[in-house]
TrEMBL record:
The keyword Ribonucleoprotein does not apply. Pfam families: DPM3 (PF08285). GO terms for cellular component: endoplasmic reticulum membrane. The keyword Endoplasmic reticulum applies. The chain crosses the membrane at residues 12-34, 40-62. Belongs to the DPM3 family. Stabilizer subunit of the dolichol-phosphate mannose (DPM) synthase complex; tethers catalytic subunit to the ER. This is Dolichol-phosphate mannosyltransferase subunit 3. Component of the dolichol-phosphate mannose (DPM) synthase complex. Keywords: Endoplasmic reticulum, Membrane, Transmembrane, Transmembrane helix. It comes from the Eukaryota. Pathway: Protein modification; protein glycosylation. It comes from Cardamine amara subsp. amara. It is found in: Endoplasmic reticulum membrane.
Amino acid sequence: MFFVVRRMKHVVKIMSLVVAVSSIWIVLLQAAIIPRSYTLLLPIYFVVSLGCYGLLMIGIGLMQFPTCPEESVLLQHDIAEAKDYLSGNGIEVVSD
């Protein structure tokens, strides 16, 4: 239940951002504060900016990705156990 509520809050944030950006764009088109040729390109700038933001967040996430040496040891143990089980059942497992 908590996951659904949290997910809905995220959707509401995204939708409110889209509505706000759309309303600002419409106001700029109607008011002619910025030349119309520039105003028509604003959605493209927004999409490019959103893509750059997404790449930035992925890069930050990769830089802060934790290393877990304990989990690596457990995973290697599980792999060795699986190889023993499969070789016991007559399946040959070859790895480098």
